[in-house]
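Please, structure for the following, as tokens.
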Amino acid sequence: MRTLVVIAHQNLEESKVNARWIEELKKYPDEFTIHNLGNSYEFDVVKEQEMIKSHDKLVLQFPIYWFNCPPNMKKWLDDVFIEGWAYGKNNQIKNHKVSLLVSAGIKEKNYSKNGRYKYSLNEILVPFEVSFSYMEANYQGFFASYGAEYDLTTNDIENDLPQMLDFIRSI
């Protein structure tokens, strides 16, 4: 079972969490294919679709950016998941396992009914769940790391790596 991990990050060079996740995933090339969108907004749609189809699972990895994914990930989704391929006739994504791997700069307590943002990360990510449901893909939820902008330490990130790997492997 091979997993395609598509990454969008506006500033990966300064990333604590996402860069470390990528480094860890690269240790298992037989399991994970890393596809970093970089800062690109131009995609070879057929090549991207073929890459997805050649893998058993798809993971979208990104930092929460204005309570969503980074803009180039959104453009990638809009360009690649089109009618006649991802939904409608000839749906190629139907039953494909899909999940999210996200980092949130804010502490988890702020993503709650009583927190600063009034919504959980689960609620904020509902548009992804609904979109994949519409495509009849098999949405498997998300794994999140919280607090990268605050007191998240290298040890915290390292301690989360086994759970992150277990999550991706279990989808």
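The longest helix spans residues 154-170. Strands lie at 3-7, 32-36, 57-63, 97-104, 138-146.
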